[in-house]
Amino acid sequence: VMVFASQITSPQWQGYELAGKTLALGLSCGVFGINVAHELGHRNTWYEKAMAKILLITTLYSQFIIEHNKGHHRNVSTPHDPSSAPYGTSLYAFWWRSITGVYRDAWRIANAECRKKGKPVFSLHNEMLQLQLLTVLWLLALVLLFGVKALLLYLPAAVMGILLLETVNYIEHYGLARKLTDSGVYERAKPIHSWNSSHPLGRIVLFELSRHSDHHYLASRPYQILRHHNEAPQLPTGYPGSMILATIPPLWFRIMDRQLKTYHML
Average pLDDT for residues 60-73, to the nearest whole number? Predict the structure, then answer.
């Protein structure tokens, strides 16, 4: 981001060049920002978690680390998870559902943790409040160092990164649902509750995120040793291809309905 901001302040760049740089930064925010932060956020050391938060602050999605680790992994493939796409939901409807739901649930989780510790909700003990304040300071620093122009070009890149992440969330659990048991709790999350893909391109570009079933089976397992589960439902193409397919809802529904039937999920 800093390299981007320092470069685009130069008057030599044409409009199409600025658009290209913004697009490149947006892809980096999604792939090398939020995606890598996701992996670091599941590690056990304080410095890896700190690096995850720094990456998420610079991509304007700091609430992700709270909701994903303490909400999504608990509620995945249930109606309580904003990041799991219910059957029949389009990608564009899911974007709104997930982004707003993640923000809301992150506050709910952080507030509950403060109350559990006996700390005031509106204080620096609140992790969500900490992250929001740091995000504001980051944006102010960006303006002070590089000007308003840098901010105005950075914001759409950050939004692009967020939408890339949410598109991945969409294809990871679309239409898959955990059963509610007689005791009133949902069955344990299994490999069958995540869409997988072993296509090499998606595995390389997304740091093995496409082996998503194993990630939910054991979130602490490092990405480089995630395993393939034969019983997990497989996407008809790799993650990059599935992300493009999801942008065309009628085609996505047609193909995925067939895929859900193949795995007896529909």
Answer: 96
Average predicted confidence (pLDDT) for the chain = 91
Closest CA to 209 of 199, 220, 222, 223: 223
Distances (CA, A) of 191 to 21, 55, 184, 210, 212: 38, 28, 21, 12, 8
Question: Residue 76: is it exposed, middle or buried by C-beta count within 10 angstroms (0-12/13-18/19+)?
Answer: buried
The answer to whether the pTM exceeds 0.90 is yes
Residue 159 burial (10 A CB sphere; 0-12, 13-18, 19+): middle
How far is residue 159's CA from residue 174's CA, in Å, rounded to a whole number? 22
Distance between CA 154 and CA 25 in Å, rounded? Answer: 8
Which SS3 state, helix, strand or coil, does residue 180 take? strand
Which residue from 29, 24, 74 is spatially nearest to 168, judged by alpha carbons? 29
Q: Is 45 left (phi over 0), alpha (psi -120 to 50) or beta?
A: beta
In angstroms, the CA 122 to CA 107 distance is: 11
Q: Whole-angstrom Cα distance, residue 82 to residue 108?
A: 13
- 264: region left, alpha or beta (phi > 0 left; psi from -120 to 50 alpha): left
Q: Cα dihedral angle (34, 38, 44, 48), rounded to 10 degrees?
A: -20
Of residues 177 and 7, more confidence is placed in 177
State how far the alpha carbon of 174 is from the alpha carbons of 89, 203, 206, 215, 229, in Å.
Answer: 8, 19, 18, 16, 18
Place of tokens 């609140």: 126
- Contact status, residue 82 vs residue 98, Cβ threshold 8 Å: yes
